[in-house]
Design a protein that fits this description.
With about 250 residues, this protein is mainly alpha-helical. It is built from 8 helices and 3 strands, in the order ααααααααβββ. Among the domains are: about 1-75, Up-down Bundle (Methane Monooxygenase Hydroxylase, Chain G, domain 1), CATH 1.20.58; about 80-110, no CATH class; about 115-170, no CATH class. It has a 3-stranded antiparallel sheet with strand order 2-1-3, with no helix packed on it. Strand 1 and strand 2 form a beta hairpin. GO terms for molecular function: RNA polymerase II cis-regulatory region sequence-specific DNA binding; transcription coregulator activity.
């Protein structure tokens, strides 16, 4: 009976090691693609790799839950030999991850409980969860479920619906200010709101300083400022500038 259990345990361990090796190879292949072939990697290929990994994990879980598989929780591992020297066989089996099986490494690899700090944090979280009343916990659960439902609804909505909603929002929202548009048209067409002082500039010969620009619009008057005598002299429409006196001409809006 004992030999049968030992054989069954050995077979289960070998099968589990084989499944884990397949999972490890799939992970290595996927990581290599992500690091070296990311430019050619497509989203359907990524989903296929995730599906492969998920299937292998499900296979391992089924193997562990199988009735014929012995319970590994009831098995005890006892280190028979501890040595600070390098063990080549152990390094080969662990792919150089555990080259030495010493007193320092054994507690980490053969630990059956979490670290004391982690265990203390778990106790604190359990105590906080126990202090929350049933009504408060139920409200929190309902709020979380509502948030998750809204998020899933937004994610499951077709993209066309979201684009249509965005387009409707853009059409309903005005992209201009009517008051600014009217003010700009009035300024360009009729000079409304413009300053009456124009900067100095050349005037074409024979240009009459006074005359209607447009029907009902503002008119221009030519004014000359003498530079030699420092006197300012208003000139009538079409009046020539005094000879020998430099000056500048300003067109004022009347």
């Amino acid at each position: 009976m004992q030999q049968r259990e030992e054989k069954l345990l050995d077979a289960s361990v070998e099968s589990l090691i084989s499944r884990v090796a397949h999972l490890k190879n799939a992970l290595h292949s996927f990581i290599y693609k992500l690091e070296n072939e990311y430019e050619r990697l497509t989203w359907p290929s990524v989903l296929d790799n995730f599906a492969l990994l998920s299937g292998q994990l499900n296979t391992i879980n089924k193997l562990l839950r199988n009735e014929k598989t012995p319970s590994f929780r009831q098995q005890i591992i006892i280190p028979l030999l501890l040595s600070p020297d390098r063990d080549e066989e152990l390094a080969k089996l662990t792919e150089q991850r555990v080259p030495v099986f010493s007193h320092e490494i054994v507690p980490d690899h053969l630990r059956t409980k979490p670290d004391p700090e982690v265990e203390e944090q778990e106790k604190q979280l359990s105590a906080e969860a126990a202090r929350i009343g049933t009504e408060v916990a139920q409200k929190q659960i309902q709020t979380l479920n509502k948030l998750c439902s809204n998020l899933l609804e937004k994610l499951n909505n077709p993209r066309d619906d979201r684009d249509a909603d965005s387009a409707a929002i853009r059409q309903n929202k005005p992209s201009f200010n009517p008051a600014d548009t009217n003010a700009l048209v009035a300024a360009v067409g009729f000079g409304k709101g413009l300053s009456k002082c124009r900067p100095p500039g050349p005037v074409a010969p024979g240009h009459t300083g006074q005359g209607p620009m447009m029907s009902g619009g503002p008119t221009l008057q030519q004014v000359t400022i003498g530079g030699g005598s420092g006197q300012q002299q208003g000139m009538g429409p079409g009046a020539p500038q005094q000879q020998g006196q430099p000056g500048m001409k300003i067109l004022n809006v009347i």
